[in-house]
Structures are given as C-alpha cells and as structure tokens.
Amino acid sequence: MTRSRTSGVLAGVATAVMLGGMVPVTALLSDYPLFPAQAVRYAIAAFLLLSFMVLRRRPLPRPSLRDVFALTATATTGMVGFSAAVLYAQQYADGGFVAAVIGGSPLVIAVVAPLLIRQRPVAKALAGTALVVLGVVILSGGGAWHGPGLVLALLAMFGEASFTLFAVGAIARLGVVAVSAYSCVVAALGSALVGLGSDWRIPTTTELFAILFLAVMVTAVAFVIWYYCVSVLGAANAAVLVGLVPVFGLLATVALGRQELTVVAVLGALVVATGCVIGLRASRTPPVVSDRREPCEERPELRPAAPR
C-alpha cells in the first residue's frame, strides 16, 4: 500500500472516529432548535476553514456555475437535509432502523460513483460495501417503523450518499478545503433561512460546548479529512469506511456506559471490518485528486460524466 493510499485510509478511519463520537454530543442538543443550531455550527466551521485558506496565503478558488450547483446540492441534501431527515425519521422509527437504512449509503456510493465517470462498478468494491451494509444492520439491530418512517430513513440514506457524490467533481476542480468551506457557507445560509421562525435563544453552556464540538471537530476537521480520503481512494473505495461510523459510535456509547457490549454487536463490527478490507482491496490505483495541484482540465479521467 502506497504512502498516499495509507494516508487516505487513515483519514477515512479518523473521520469515522469523529462522526461515531458525535453521537453522545448530539444528544446534548436534544432541547435546542435544530436549524438555528445547524446554522451556527456551519457558520463557525465556514469561518475556520476560510480563515485557514487565508492564512495559507493561497487565493480562494472561484467556483464555476457547475461548482455552485454541486456545492448547493451537497449542502442542501448531504448536510441540512440529512440532519433534518435523521431527526424526523426517529419520530416514526426506532433509532436502530434508521441507522440500518443509513448504513446502505456505502452501497449507493459504490454503485453510483463509478457511473459518474463512465466506469463500471468494481465487483470487489460492491462485495465489500455489501458486507459493510450487512454489518451495520447487525450492529443497529434493525428496528421498527411506522408512517413515513421508512421514507424519511431512505431520504437520510440518500443524503448521506449525496454528501460524497455531489462533491466529487468539485473536489477535483477546487480542492478539499475550498469545497468544505463553501459547502459550510451554503449550509449555514440555508439553515438560517429555514430556521427563521425558530427560537433563536442563547444556548446553555452544555449546548454551546456541543455546538462548538460539532463545528470544529465534526465539521471543519472531519469534512476536510473525509474529502481528502475521497480524493485519494476514490469515492467508491472510500465509501466502505462509512460503515465504521456506527462501530465507533458503539464504542463511544459503551465507553460512556450507555450501552452494553454484546456478542451481536461484536459480530456486526467484525463483518464491517471484513467488508472494509475487501472493499479497499478492490482498486489499488484510484485517481488521486490533490488540492488544486492537478486541475481536472489536465486529467480527463477526473471529470464527472455530467453535473447532477
């Protein structure tokens, strides 16, 4: 495994650790309005990311109309829409059921990502992501649903997948930091508009800590290293690492004493790990997308088939 590929895998695992650890932190915001919290979270993350780019003394890349579409779609479906779908889905379905459905997102990415660059899905990648999905279902325990619970859970699954799929082309043209920053700007503005009628009260100390943690670690940091993982491994290969999120979420809840470690949970984690190994062995030479050092105009294989 090359150094760049190893760094991509480590970036994906680190992202899974951060997103898995956000579960107990998110619970601290259960009494705070959703969209105001999201607006503040993404605004802080956007400020940090844009400030980082300025400090690097590198000009901010100017997004094209195609990039604006991709960034808007990423923020709308993969960030604001995803958060809302997860929240409302749990009003009509068990958390385990919602987690199991969202666990299907790696398979969606593994199928769709190659098609966007006019390639066929790799059989090993599909096999690996299928095992990851199975492991996530075992981990989450399935669960029950009623009313619109299934539809909302499916929307959350597609939102999770679109966060990666819509951004692939923009990453090649703008770079990982710029895509993360611009997406946060759009998400902050969108959340603020949707939440105009909400209660914009001052958060408590605990809620403020949760918002800051989500803004810095789960957004500003995690977004950049995840998109770096995608740029190095390719979206289809990186997708299998999404399955590690519920694994680390389980470890976090067990460490905090909120859940017991069961044989079924261990089995699910082992299935996910096996799927990741198989999926990551699917392709050892994915296209590498560096941070604007190799523009897609000079590398035709990086161009998506068409803007989505």
Summarize the structure.
The chain is an all-alpha fold. It is built from 13 helices and no strands.
Overview of the structural elements:
The protein has 308 residues and is mainly α. It has helices at residues 3-26, 34-55, 65-89, 95-102, 105-116, 123-140, 149-165, 168-174, 176-194, 205-233, 235-239, 244-255, 263-280. The two termini are 33 Å apart. Mean pLDDT is 86; it is low at 284-308.
Would you spell out the secondary-structure blueprint of this structure?
Elements: H1 3-26, H2 34-55, H3 65-89, H4 95-102, H5 105-116, H6 123-140, H7 149-165, H8 168-174, H9 176-194, H10 205-233, H11 235-239, H12 244-255, H13 263-280
Helix pairs in contact: 1-10, 1-12, 2-9, 2-10, 3-7, 3-8, 3-9, 4-6, 4-7, 5-6, 5-7, 6-12, 6-13, 8-9, 9-10
The H-and-E topology, N to C, reads as: HHHHHHHHHHHHH
Q: Give the tally of structural domains.
A: 1
Percentage of helical residues?
A: over 70%
> What average pLDDT do the residues reach?
86
User: Strand pairing plus helix content: what structural class?
Assistant: mainly alpha
Question: What is the first-to-last residue Cα distance?
Answer: 33 Å
User: Quick one: how many beta strands?
Assistant: 0
Which structural traits does this protein have?
single chain; mainly alpha; 308 residues; globular; disordered C terminus
